[in-house]
Specification:
39% of the residues lie in helices and 15% in strands. It starts with 8 loop residues before the first helix and ends with a strand.
Length: 87
């Protein structure tokens, strides 16, 4: 195997969807439920160390998700972070 070839997250996701039948839209719907719950309790400040959806400055897109115990990159810190404990 060629370990020098980088596989992007996008390529991995499409492969999982098309080759292995992963229901991406179903997962997207579940994520939207969690996002809405986070928005419902968001007080304008992110709690460090807590999971967070990183949302674009326009509020139109989720850019990434930061897991508990991780910190967003320097670039993502400039965007709006919505923190919520995700059980």
């Amino acid at each position: 195997m060629n370990s020098e070839i980088h596989i992007t997250d996008h390529a991995l996701l499409i492969w999982m969807q098309e080759v292995h039948g992963i229901d991406v839209e179903g997962w997207r719907d579940l994520m939207l439920v969690d996002l809405q719950a986070a928005l419902d309790v968001f007080d304008g400040d992110r709690t460090p160390g807590q999971p967070a959806f990183i949302v674009s400055q326009t509020g139109e897109s989720v850019i990434t998700f930061v897991a508990a115990g991780q910190e967003p990159s320097r670039v993502h810190r400039r965007t709006i972070a919505i923190a919520r404990a995700v059980a």
